[in-house]
Design a protein that fits this description.
single chain, 7-stranded parallel β-sheet
Length: 252
């Protein structure tokens, strides 16, 4: 089955690298026009050049209300519509137990990982999707289903994002579908500290599919949800983790 997005326009936050860039590339190859955004214009420009025709950029800080409005308005002005919103941008400025975190890094993590996806969705809803429909895909994490000795704050934001996904799906139906993807460990620069220097090999051994995720794995799932193939799916969080959440050690 060939999944196509001909005539569609997608907006991808955090689209200059990693998962966001791969989603943008996949969507362009499926026929969409894609606007990517991230803080650094140079990184966006380089990503657009690499992706090729169909990719566009408007740099901005996703946590700033004025940048949110500017990027969304630029997308509508230049591309005419926003059929798909990918809330991908995330941050993780702290590693350690949540009981020891300082207020500034707590606030920064929530602002980027939870508050921004809500208000980007709100703005796209107000400016386009309320009247025209569309699809919103939030990039969550398997961490949102458990606890962690070092990633607790990040995981809390992703758990909340999973619930926000369900809440928005209920509120914005039937015109807008809202879903989430929850990847396990994917080989990106963002997660490099978790898989470099052979650490990823140990994680992969615990996954039934015996490998870490690649950005293309997440992009393929995003394409399925964004295309007509996902037309009866909303309020769901799809786990993409090589089977990690169902792994077990056989007893002998």
């Amino acid at each position: 089955m060939e999944l196509r997005l001909d005539g569609k326009v997608a907006l991808v936050t955090g689209g200059s690298r990693g998962i966001g860039k791969s989603i943008a590339q996949t969507f362009v190859e499926a026929g969409a026009q894609v606007m990517i955004t991230s803080r650094k214009a140079e990184a966006c420009e380089a990503a657009v050049k690499e992706i090729g025709d169909g990719a566009h950029f408007e740099a901005g800080h996703i946590g700033k209300e004025e940048d949110t409005a500017r990027v969304i308005e630029a997308t509508l002005d230049r591309l005419g519509r926003i059929d798909i919103l990918i809330n991908n941008a995330a941050t993780n400025p702290y590693a350690g137990p949540i009981i020891a975190i300082d207020r500034s890094r707590w606030d920064k993590t929530f602002s980027t990982n939870l508050t921004a996806p809500l208000f980007w969705t709100q703005k796209v809803w107000d400016d386009w999707m309320k009247e025209n429909g569309g699809s919103v895909i939030n990039i969550a994490s398997v961490g949102g289903f458990g606890t962690s000795p070092i990633l607790g704050v990040y995981d809390i934001t992703k758990a909340a994002l999973i619930h926000v996904t369900k809440q928005l799906a209920a509120e914005l139906a039937p015109k807008v579908r809202v879903n989430a993807l929850a990847p396990g460990l994917v080989k990106t620069d963002f997660a490099k500290a978790l898989w470099e220097d052979g650490k990823g090999d140990e994680v992969a051994k615990a996954y039934p599919l015996e490998r870490l995720g690649e950005v293309e794995d997440v992009a393929a799932a995003a394409l399925f949800l964004a295309a007509e193939s996902g037309r009866w799916v909303t309020g769901q969080t799809w786990v993409l983790d090589g089977g990690g959440m169902i792994a077990y050690k056989p007893t002998t």
